[in-house]
């Protein structure tokens, strides 16, 4: 089933490799493989608040060391904030 999270690391790796292969080739990724990839990547981690749910105000340093808070980044239309635990760019 597409919503199951694979327990086996080799199975997770195979899902991620196939997803990467299709993306690199510019081929469409089937919906079921997309769901498997998301589940294998998230690996039981929560993906964030529910839509419309407010987050607590917090601050973190930016790439130049300046403290940035949710309050000072939020504009008139809100704020899109994305966290990814493997951000290695």
Overview of the structural elements:
The chain has helices spanning 9-24, 31-42, 70-73; strands spanning 59-61, 67-69. It has a two-stranded antiparallel ribbon. The model has no long low-confidence stretch (mean pLDDT 81). Helix 1 (9-24) packs across helix 2. The chain has a domain at 9-42. It is built from three helices and two strands; from the N terminus they run ααββα. Strand 1 and strand 2 (67-69) form a beta hairpin. With 89 residues, the protein is mainly alpha-helical.
Please describe the structure with a list of short key phrases separated by commas or semicolons.
single chain; 89 residues; mainly alpha; two-stranded antiparallel ribbon; 3 helices; 2 strands; elongated
Distance between the termini: 32 Å
Structural class: mainly alpha
Biggest β-sheet strands, sense, barrel: 2 strands, antiparallel
Which stretches of 5+ consecutive residues score pLDDT under 50? none
- Would you list the SSEs in sequence order as H and E? HHEEH
What is the 3D shape?
elongated
Strand order of the largest sheet: 1-2
Mean pLDDT: 81
Beta strand %: 5-15%
Helix content: 25-40%
Number of strands: 2
What is the overall number of helices?
Answer: 3
